[in-house]
Design brief:
Blueprint (H helix, E strand, L loop, with lengths): L11 H8 L3 E6 L5 E10 L5 E10 L1 H23 L4 E5 L4 E4 L1 H7 L3 H4 L10 H17 L3 E9 L2 E13 L5 E10 L1 H52 L1
Antiparallel strand pairs: 1-2, 2-3, 4-5, 4-8, 6-7, 7-8
């Protein structure tokens, strides 16, 4: 391991030999490898140390995986914290495991207040039933689902385009359900405003049509009255 025939400084084998106890330490070698070394004393029936068995385990790949997971976890935490979109994660039993600040701001509940609770503990029955139905579908099929729904929260009525998707481990087993809700309230209000304006425009168009019809009738009557008046004048002359 160390390209040396002499004991290293603070050698665990020497320490185990002297103390008669098990010694273990993790070292990082010059070539970048991470090694867990264990020095185990071998004793006779009288308890005298006869020698030491030293075992070295290369945990470089394991440590790299841990670092990668740590980096990934930091990335996910940063994503959850800074995302403007409400995000919620729930376990396979339907309990909420984490919500991000955007979710807290929209629904008016802190993360500590909802973690471990069911959707029925927070939302009205109709909305909670919908969440649970879709979550079970995601867990059963492993496929994401989308829906649009309206939620009346402490911050007012909000319209969401919601995506629920499976969170899977390395072997493809779903262990949680993620929920991302895009707030489309502004779009819905704009659509409703356009719809209302369309209805108003249609109503005014109908009124104009009726007015045009009435004007044509009046104009026709005027022409007939004028012709009748002219005929009378000619007859009088």
């Amino acid at each position: 391991l160390h390209n040396s025939t002499k004991p290293c400084s603070d050698c665990i084998a020497v320490n185990a030999m002297i103390s008669g106890d098990l010694h273990e330490r993790e070292d990082k070698l010059d070539d970048g490898r991470s090694i867990i070394k264990r020095g185990s004393p071998v004793k006779d029936s009288a308890g005298e140390v006869l020698g030491v068995v030293q075992i070295a385990l290369d945990v470089t790949a394991h440590r790299k995986t841990e670092e990668d997971l740590k980096t990934t976890d930091q990335f996910l935490q940063s994503l959850l914290k800074n995302s403007p979109t409400p995000i919620c994660l729930s376990n396979t039993d339907g309990r909420i495991s984490i919500v991000n600040p955007a979710w807290e701001g929209i629904f008016g509940f802190k993360n500590d207040e909802v973690v471990g609770k069911f959707f029925h503990d927070i939302f009205p029955p109709k909305i909670a039933d919908r969440f649970n139905y879709l979550s079970k579908k995601v867990l059963r099929t492993g496929v994401q689902v989308e829906l649009e729904q309206s939620v009346d929260s402490s911050t007012g009525l909000h319209h969401f385009h919601t995506v629920q998707f499976p969170l899977q481990d390395t072997i493809g087993k779903t262990f949680a359900v993620g929920t991302i809700s895009v707030d489309v309230t502004a779009r819905k209000l704009a659509e409703q405003e356009l719809t209302d304006k369309g209805v108003e425009l249609s109503r005014k168009s109908q009124q104009l049509g009726e007015m045009n019809t009435a004007l044509r009738v009046l104009l026709k009557q005027k022409n007939e009255d004028q012709r009748e008046l002219e005929e009378r004048m000619v007859s009088n002359v």
